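Example S7 (structure tokens).
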């Protein structure tokens, strides 16, 4: 807040009808600038104009205080409480007031990153809406293991008259009961994510009209959610000391002592730990979600049953498949050379090039009798490599190997055979791409 030119830059709240096809999100203008000049004229920035166009209509000046202007529009909704989020405790304290007062209405929690709306009625959470991608139903179904990423993307493209949840049920990815559970989890996760918002603004709107049936998807005790939310915040702070990232992969400890009093979640997750699956992936496969999987992994680490390691930077199966495609070309080069008796010399030349080029640690001592390299050896060698785009680097190295093999074969082939082989090899090399 401050002065600039002839006007004042003020925080600007408005309450009123939601127009412009934006549903109920957002209602609070928190970032765009609006200048009020000494002549009393309001001069919105371009961003503010875009927002205000959705709120066209007649407004009355409800409140003007230093730093705050409230305009009230022709709407049944009444602004019961509004203010600024000062720290991570703000939203929790506000929700506690709403719950203990048994207020009925919508709490809008707005930051620069997301807008979340929590629907309350008599101490219960009746629904939740959010424009944050992490809170979308599709992401909840993905994290819950009901959909993989490809299935989710397909359903999103097909949403129109039918909602994503309905389509998921129709396709058999889950049943109606599971969909309801997913909607409940979506509301819970939106609630917990709202608790974590440490800056922005909030407003509680009371609507005297009948409750919108579309917003009443759940009925959850707010006090129970607050208790769990506080527990989550405290536990996540504890977990992060041992589990700094959910991208890490739990690996079973060889000859670990028998587990002691593991809960069902940790027992189930331990059975799926292989050092390759990340905590995120394990959360999806077990249906525990990010928080549940993190909690289970923390328990396993405490009992020294697993250790955490970085995810492999490259999929071994993709390495083996890529090497196999180049091996087909190398073997055809060797076959052509063998026809004219130059196989031993070509193989010795190629082995020497592999060692001299520095690729020996990744390709092995050299090629086999048929001109191929060991794909499993290559995959194993790349496991511990720290580099950006290792698969792309391997693709380039294999191109170099095939090109040198073709060059080495030229001394053993007649000119016409050399040209024919070169055309064939070059065409096939161009066709090999990283998928």
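Recovered sequence:
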């Amino acid at each position: 807040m401050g002065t600039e030119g002839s006007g004042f830059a003020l925080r600007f709240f408005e309450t009123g009808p939601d127009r412009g096809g934006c549903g109920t999100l957002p209602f609070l203008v928190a970032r765009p600038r609006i200048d009020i000049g000494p002549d009393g004229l309001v001069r919105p920035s371009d961003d503010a104009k875009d927002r205000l166009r959705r709120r066209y209509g007649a407004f009355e000046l409800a409140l003007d205080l230093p730093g705050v202007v409230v305009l009230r529009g022709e709407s049944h909704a009444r602004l019961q409480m509004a203010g600024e989020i000062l720290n991570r405790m703000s939203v929790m304290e506000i929700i506690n007031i709403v719950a203990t007062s048994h207020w009925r209405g919508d709490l809008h929690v707005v930051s620069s990153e997301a807008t979340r709306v929590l629907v309350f009625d008599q101490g219960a959470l009746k629904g939740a809406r959010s424009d944050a991608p992490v809170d979308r139903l599709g992401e909840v179904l993905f994290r819950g293991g009901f959909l993989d990423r490809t299935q989710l993307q397909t359903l999103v493209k097909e949403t129109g008259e039918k909602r994503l949840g309905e389509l998921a049920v129709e396709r058999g990815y889950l049943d109606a009961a599971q969909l309801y559970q997913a909607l409940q989890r979506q509301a819970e996760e939106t609630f917990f994510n709202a608790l974590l918002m440490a800056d922005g603004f909030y407003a509680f709107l009371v609507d005297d009209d009948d409750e919108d049936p579309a917003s009443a998807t759940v009925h959850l005790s707010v006090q129970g959610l607050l208790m769990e939310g506080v527990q989550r915040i405290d536990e996540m702070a504890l977990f992060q000391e041992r589990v700094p990232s959910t991208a890490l992969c739990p690996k079973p400890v060889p000859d670990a002592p028998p587990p002691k009093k593991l809960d069902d979640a940790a027992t189930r997750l331990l059975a799926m730990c292989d050092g390759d699956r990340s905590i995120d992936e394990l959360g999806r496969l077990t249906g525990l979600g990010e928080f549940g999987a993190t909690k289970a992994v923390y328990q396993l680490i405490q009992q020294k049953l697993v250790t955490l390691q970085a995810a492999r930077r490259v999929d071994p199966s993709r390495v083996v498949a890529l090497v196999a495609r180049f091996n087909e070309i190398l073997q055809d080069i060797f076959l052509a050379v063998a026809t004219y008796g130059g196989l031993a010399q070509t193989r010795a030349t190629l082995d020497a090039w592999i060692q001299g080029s520095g690729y020996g640690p990744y390709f092995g001592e050299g090629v086999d009798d048929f001109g191929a390299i060991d794909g499993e050896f290559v995959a194993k060698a790349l496991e511990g490599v720290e580099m950006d785009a290792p698969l792309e680097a391997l693709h380039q190295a294999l191109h170099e190997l095939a090109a040198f093999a073709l060059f080495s074969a030229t001394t053993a082939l007649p000119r016409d055979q050399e040209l024919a082989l070169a055309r064939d090899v070059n065409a096939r090399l161009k066709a090999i791409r990283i998928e």
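Notes on this example. The first helix runs from residue 46 to 52.
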